[in-house]
Amino acid sequence: MLDLDGNWISTFRPKVAGRVWNVAMTGDGKLLVAGDFTDIDGAPNTSGIAALDPVTGKVVSGFKAAVTKADGSRPLVRALAVRGTTAYIAGSFNRLTGGTWNTISVSSAASFSTATGNPTTWRPRLNGTAVDVRPTDDGSRVLVAGLFSAINGDANHGYFGITDATTGAPVPGIGAWAPRPPPAPSTSRRCSTWATAWWSAARSTTRSCGTATAPG
Question: How far apart are the C-alpha atoms of 161 and 108, rounded to whole Å?
């Protein structure tokens, strides 16, 4: 691991039993690590998500927020985002054990307190796997993207859902999302690739198009 000046932190060497897909710092100085690992350093309750000391790499004692699958297969936390004192996670898992709570059932997305690991109230029910999660700048909504066709049974929020940041419920009044095809090529210029797409909380979009000059 490197510090912000690019210096190697030689003490940071956690032993991760699997892959790391995402990391995020909390406001109180923990490094949250997410992935498809079953444990870190053999510590209990560190499957899928764990909090580490960013200097030593050691698991933070007293903090617990782990995910599992009921069938015993390997869980996956693909996406992780922190806003304020809440962490949002999404991927493929159906059990969350956090803080002082008993294990609760979830559906591939959940939130928890970055201070204690206790589950919080954002728990949308996805019928597939999520690959990204992002709170909006104003903190009122949480955007979720992935290989699911509905959230809480609402197919209008399939693949790219917009949820209430408190309850996880899909925001009403939004139609089904569908990707836009690239424009037809002209005689002098064509759009070779869509380089970037920026999505707002209301699903309006601005795209940046990579272009290439074509003969004729």
Answer: 13
Short-list 75, 115, 119, CA closest to 98: 119
Selection from 175, 105, 108 nearest residue 146 by Cα: 108
Angle made by CA atoms 84, 86, 92, in degrees to the nearest 5:
140
Give 143's strand partners: 134, 162
Strand partners, 22: 34
SS3 content of the chain, % helix, strand, coil (to 5): 0, 45, 55
Q: What is the pLDDT of residues 15-55, one digit of tens each?
A: 999 999 999 999 999 999 999 999 999 999 999 999 999 99
The H-or-E segment that residue 35 falls in is: strand 31-35
Half-sphere exposure of 144 (CA within 13 A, CB side): 39
Q: Which residues of the chain have pLDDT under 50?
A: 187-198, 206-216
Q: What does the pLDDT read at residue 187?
A: 46
